[in-house]
Description:
The structure holds three protein chains of three kinds. Chain B is an alpha+beta fold. Helices cover 22% and strands 33% of the residues of chain B.
Amino acid sequence: MTRTRTAWLLAAAGALVATVAIRAAGTAPAQGATPAPVNPAQAVTPEPAPSQPPDVLFKDDVHAKAGLTCESCHGAKKAGGGYAMVARTTIAPMCAKCHADAAYMKTFAPQVRVDQYAQYQTSVHGRQMAKGETRVATCSDCHHAHGIVAVRDTRSPVTPPHVAQTCARCHADPARMTPFNRSPDIPGDWSKSVHAEALLKRGDSSAPTCSTCHGSHGATPPGAESVANVCAQCHVREADLFKKSKKADLFKSMGTGDCLTCHSNHHIEPPQASWIGLDDKAICTTCHDDKMPGAAVITSVRKGFDDLQSRMGEAQAVLDRAETAGMLVEEGKLALHNAAEAHVRMRVLVHTFAGPPFDEVLKEGLTAVAQANAAGVDAMNELQYRRRGLAVATLLILGFLATLFVKIRKLPK
Amino acid sequence: MGPENLPDPALGSGRRSLLTWLLGTWSAGVLGAIAFPVLRYLVPPEVPEATSLSVKGGTASSLAPNTARIVPFGSTPALVVRTPTGEVRAFNATCTHLACTVQYRTDLEHIWCACHNGHYDLNGKNIAGPPPRPLTEYDAHVQGDEIIISKKT
Amino acid sequence: MSLRTWFAERLPVTEVQAAIAHKTVPQHRHTVWYYLGGMTLFFFIVQVVTGILLLLYYRPSSAEAYDSVQFIMTRVPFGWLVRSIHSWSANLMVGAAFAHLFSVLFLKAYRRPREMTWVSGVLLLFLVLGFGFTGYLLPWNELSYFATRVGTDIAGVVPGVGEFILTFLRGGKDISGATLTRFYGFHVAVLPAIATALIGLHLLLVQYPGMSVPPSVEEKSKREGRPVPAMPFVPHFALRDLFGWTVALALLAGLSAYLPWELGHKADPFASAPAGIQPEWYFLWTFQALKYVPAHILGIEGELVAIIVMGLGAVALVLLPFLDINTRRSRTVVTWLAIGALAFMAAMTLLAVRGNRP
């Protein structure tokens, strides 16, 4: 029999054994609704089918490089050959035997953290697993069991660009989520967000993925009170202004989750000016109408954005025309860049939900875009001036040529 | 061929001199059309040098320690900083994360980007937040009371 | 005493004036080709004037070159016009030079006693190409940087001296600021000095034997027993020449206003060459021809063989008057060779242009 076949048979056998053992130990049903009967196949670790047998994978493992062997985790070889599977509920405590031991870990990496297990125990996954619910994630589900590489390694399933994929293996699977009354849409939602685009398309490793907001080992969705704090990790200015604004207390009392009220949590889209306004498509109309206080501010803010955006479009068009025609428009581009900056600052100042600071920056933006437009118009005028000048010169030359032609004709043979 | 067939000399020479006059006028026009741009070209323009290699960064006396100012440098903004210890430094003020313009924080005594909370130290090195690279540094010299910023060679 | 008399005491003013007054130009169906030499000279004069104007503001260092050209185009009054005229006139001068060469080839004006005129003319053509090649680098933009790199790479292919030639041209192993300064020196000092001397020689050599008459016209006049009609240089030919020059001037101004010369992007030596990089149109035919040469010919590197062939071709061109024994047959051979060369160059240029279209 080939080694691969052996491995598979052992895995299947081990899974069966584990399932029976766990059932025999008497797992308590999950909190809340009665979960559906456990499907043995689903009790197996949800990591995708390994491409190679464990001993081959283990060669690349950081643990192998640290001098560990199969026996370190699996115990002694079985009488008939092969190793016993580690029971799912015992995986985390087993890893913690080393990874929570500060003195031991320091011998391999002086700065490495040793609180992963402690964090795990506070997480939803950890608490469920402690109750014997094995259909939640444990160490080997995310980090894999053999061939474990450092988090920063680009092959790692938990390196930032891969995290969402790893979480999605369970959290995007309706069969796995329904027993826990969880939506399987969330990883899909996140993948449509600006953060996913930044992280996966632009390679901006500062963009948040699942673990950035929810924590990795201590994964617990942030509670409604702390959403603003989570977003504030990067969006400092917006959070600051929001907390000082009227909306902070209001949203807290309504329990709408601060930033989530307008921006949603997973499918975060690029904010549009059309979100602000008193028409049906705007978010403000969730609470506001044109009679309530604030209607004037909403209208003027929306108008400010629309104004600036349309003028920026015009300025860009005229600058492009000038540049295509061969004129150089560096100063115009700089002014347009300043207008774009003002636009960004205006978006930040929306979070004051008030008129004055926003209006000042709007004025700056409009001045800059007027300068940009003027530069473009000047360039086009200069182009016209050049062509007019050329027309004059050509007329002179043509007049000269005509007279010369007559003169040549008149020359004696 | 009788005398009446001969071309009238007066008329002939009149036409000839008209032609010569016309030729003279037109050629003067053409030469003028050539000379005018050439002469205008020879006169140095208002801004005598390209602004993309070095610019003035404002007066040194008006830049107090632990403050900074933004000046345009070619088509990008530049940040001119007077450190708390009194040194004058200059950087490209374009944040290396998503190209917002950075600012100087007198409370933090270093450079900060408001867009996503990026921090740079006084050497331009990215020390916290999303920015992946340091800010490009420029040479800053003080000549008299004038700060001159130039690209590093 | 009049001014003229004052000068006549010190310089051969009277003799020169007499010579000019007596100069005639043969008038026949091929007379129109006589204007091409003067046209090339006109473009050269335009280049000298606009070139001098440009070097009042241009800076020949890799750090400042591009920005100084941008400065000329945007801040200096009429700088855009001077620069565009300089770039367009360069191209038109090359075109006129080639047209002049081919017209002389077809009209057999290189025959005795005009051998030296031909030799100096061919050398002038090489100089014009040198002007074009060195001048092209000076704006230090992306296209010119890589085009120069490709062009000088070819020089290195020559065995033995190739490496030395390459280093001499580039001022180092690779294209750098040193290359720019060196090319600038060639472009504004070395080549102009040689060109001025050669042009002076060439013009002088044209005056003494007079304008050449094509063999067919000569034979016709011999058959009919009539001398070839001629027109006085001044004013008949000169005014027509002036007409042509003025049209060319109008053309240059029009091109500058409606098709201004681009500046492109600043050269970045560490960036990879942009796709579809190719030299200026007058080098395209060699560039394309080299692409078709097989990797090895009879055991020798293909490129090397091509360079040698082209080199031999150039030498043959220079020595043409001594190779053509001036019989009807040899002249016909030259005519057909010229047609072949023209067709080859045109075909290669067309293929290069088509090949690089996206």
